[in-house]
Amino acid sequence: MPSNILIIPTVFFALLALFFLILTVGSSKKRKIMATSRNLVMTLLLISLSALFGTISISIYGYHALTKEELAATVIITPIAKQKFSAQFIMPDGSKQVFTLAGDQLYVDAHILKWKPIVNIFGLHTSYELDRVSGRYSDLDDERHKVHTHYSLSQNKVFESAAEICIAFPIAGR
Questions:
Q1: Which of 42, 45, 131, 167 sees the fewest Cβ atoms within 10 Å?
Q2: What residues contact residue 132 under an 8 Å CB cut-off, 6+ apart?
Q3: How many Å separate Cα 99 from the centre of its chain?
Q4: Average pLDDT of the segment spanning 76-97
């Protein structure tokens, strides 16, 4: 569980509720009705506050689990000539790869394993692997007749994944 500042008031109010519960039991043994009532009301109030802060804390954790995102790569594009550009991939681990590509757009293939949202709460998050990068032409005739460039971004793997996603990014200024 990630650190959450609301855990502190949750525990604080729970401990105060325990303290007032002990006072409630003590005053009820002495048959002090007003003190027992006051302590019981304080106990219930503090349990309510503890439950409120605990619920908010768990909700924040669930929100972070459901909206978790990871950086796949940072790509720096440098135009070289007409319909030719360089794409530098900076991976999250700091490794860099540079590719010279032909076309008007950057095209990235990736394998993605997406879980149902409820499973994210239990720590299983979407997994991905960048597979290939290639250049792509915006004009269909260019796509059919001009040279194509493709490079692998993946590493050798034992199992192949079933899901695949392809994303094309237009190059600025084209």
A1: 167
A2: 108, 109, 150, 151, 152, 153, 154
A3: 28
A4: 91
pTM for this one?
0.54
Residue with tokens 């190059």: 171
Tell me how long the chain is.
174
pLDDT at 159 over 60: no
CA angle 30, 31, 36 (to 5 degrees): 95
Checking if the pLDDT of 2 tops 60, the result is no
Please give the angle made by the CA atoms of 74, 75 and 81, to the nearest 5 degrees.
170
Rounded Cα–Cα distance for residues 136 and 159 (Å): 28
Print burial letters for 16-52: b (CB count within 10 Å at least 16), e (below 16).
bbeebbebbeebeeeeeeeebeebbebbeebbebbee
Burial class (CB in 10 A: 0-12, 13-18, 19+), 77: middle
C-alpha distances out from residue 124 to 56, 61, 127, 160, Å: 22, 14, 9, 19
Whose tokens are 């978790």? That residue is 68
**What tokens appear for 2 in the block?**
């990630």
- How many CA within 13 A on the CB side of residue 58? 8
Tell me if 68 sits within 8 A of 115, measured CB to CB: no
DSSP H/E element including 140: helix 140-145
